[in-house]
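Task 17 of the worksheet. Students: predict the tertiary structure of the chain below and write it out as structure tokens. Keep your answer in the requested format; marks are given for formatting as well as content.
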Amino acid sequence: MTKKHKILMAVASLILGLVFMFPIWTIDLEAPQYPEGIGMEISIDKIEGKSKQDLQNINGLNHYIGMKPITPESIPELKIMPWIFGFLIVSGLAIAVWGNRTVLLIWIILFVLLAIAGLVDFYLWSYDYGHDLDPNAAIKIPGMTYQPPLIGSKQLLNIKATSLPDIGFYISVVSIVLAGYVFWSSGKK
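Model answer:
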């Protein structure tokens, strides 16, 4: 790799540090009882309400239909993800120093596999929350599940749930596209 490629790879790695500052996913809920809407932001190390009381309000709504409360401290992925991103940053910087295309390709493949695993894990997490309902819930509708969509919008009774990637996700996409460009352009004769 040329000096330019090494600099671009360093940039691809370093911008991942921004993922520690921005949410990677957001879920918004529109309901008649919350006309201004409520929502939560999912970051690599925490889940928070968009407003101060939003997570508490979401848990209140979920309680009536039998969903488990969303308690960020009980979600192991929020403890693991900062280490994964830290590894990607450090290993990406090492690749930028060494300039090895084969290791860069392995890094890209690993990053893509980790991203896919993260999306699958998020889907399974939301599936569990939406399907494993308390049989003693105040509101029970036979056959009804409350899983929010992975991406997009879905009507759940009188609540419209919208789940979309947020800034941290797009930062990750820019990083991997930049690394892919470094791999492709450094191989041209």
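Marker's comment: Helices lie at 3-14, 54-65, 77-98, 101-131, 167-186. The chain has a mean pLDDT of 91.
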